[in-house]
Amino acid sequence: MNEYLVIAIIIIILVLLIVSQLKTDKRKLTFINKDGSETSISVELSDNTVKQMRGLMFRNSLPQDEGMLFVFPDERTRSFWMMNTTIPLDAIHIDSTGKVVDIIEMQPCKSLNCPSYPARKPAKYVIEVNQGFSKLHNITLNNTFIKIS
After folding, report:
1. How far does the chain reach from its first CA to its final CA, in angstroms?
2. Could you tell me if residue 62 is inside a domain?
3. Is residue 2 part of a domain?
4. How far apart are CA 64 and CA 55, in angstroms?
5. Whole-prediction pTM value?
6. pLDDT (tens digit, 9 = 90+) per residue, 26-85?
7. What's the order of all strands across the beta sheet hosting 100-106?
8. CATH number of the structural domain spanning residue 138
9. CA 83 to CA 100: how far, in whole Å?
10. DSSP state of 81
């Protein structure tokens, strides 16, 4: 085999591995407030580095009843940025018990000089939804929990 064919095969394998990591896995997520009210949305699961790096980049819209759930292997302080993200988002940070520990409003950014949005407390999960979603559905710190199905 010549070296160009070997390189081409390696590139094809790498592309297939990356594409397989981008496959969309959707789950139902329910926010449960202490007052008993519930709000359910469909979330795309972002559970690996490739999906987490891409996040909601390059999207022009997000339906009101949808979002993205970032699942991390450990609980620690998370920081997000909005490079190439065109829609304003709420980032809802959730600890390992399912409790909301921070809600951050993030603005779109189309440059390389985007601000970072660090959370105040450690989280194992972060849910990105349209900005204003948290206020609209009364999702608040320490009073809202999540259930994933």
Report:
1. 49
2. yes
3. no
4. 17
5. 0.81
6. 889 999 998 889 999 999 988 878 778 888 888 899 999 999 999 999 999 999 989 889
7. 100-106, 89-94, 116-130, 66-81, 38-46, 26-33, 144-148
8. 2.60.120.1140
9. 24
10. E
